[in-house]
Design goal:
This protein is α/β, with parallel strands linked by helices. The chain is built from seven helices and seven strands.
Length: about 220
Amino acid sequence: MTTIINTDIADSRKNLVYPLEETRFHKLIVKTIRILFKPIMSLNVSGMEYIPNKGPAIIAANHVSNMDVFPLQLTIERPIYFMGKAELFENAFIHYLFRQMGGFPVYRGERDEWAIDHAKKILEMGNLLGMFPEGTRSRGRGLKVARTGAARLAIDLQCPVIPISIDGSNQFFKNFPKKIKVNVVIGKQIVSGNGELPIAMTDRIMIEIARNLPIELRGVYQLN
């Protein structure tokens, strides 16, 4: 049985401001990260034509490491509002910084109504919502079974999902100061079919992500 969080009793998120428009702080940080990462990361991107210039979409990517958010945001010019595990937001100062960057916490393993509602607000405002369907890092050991949250939002709001495959982000700082190569492949937009169930759409999303990853990273979504 799914546990539902009682946000009225225990959740302080409703008293905080989570920006739904790009902040000056976000712009500054992205510019700074672009400069800082230039000498340590070679970013190779393909499929930029599948990113819409405007309108809502869900960015669904594989989750190799905690560094994944950086190549994703450096790849896409539009701000991405990331859903992240609640543990990353426990420190009040870090929580504030993440909020200014468009991040918001979700409690994993439970039906987090607040996080679902906030994700819907992001999409209803015509923004890009960033999600990692696996829910946890693979650490380069291959795709794990994905959760259906991204597909459920896409079906409910009738917005596209953009599958993105990341390879190499788990190598950050391992061979410093040697420059690492990170590949980002953006796949074609996936839209829900008539009457399609979330689990079926999730499989389509993950298979597309797997298709653009090296064989050793495809995990449970190995292609025939």
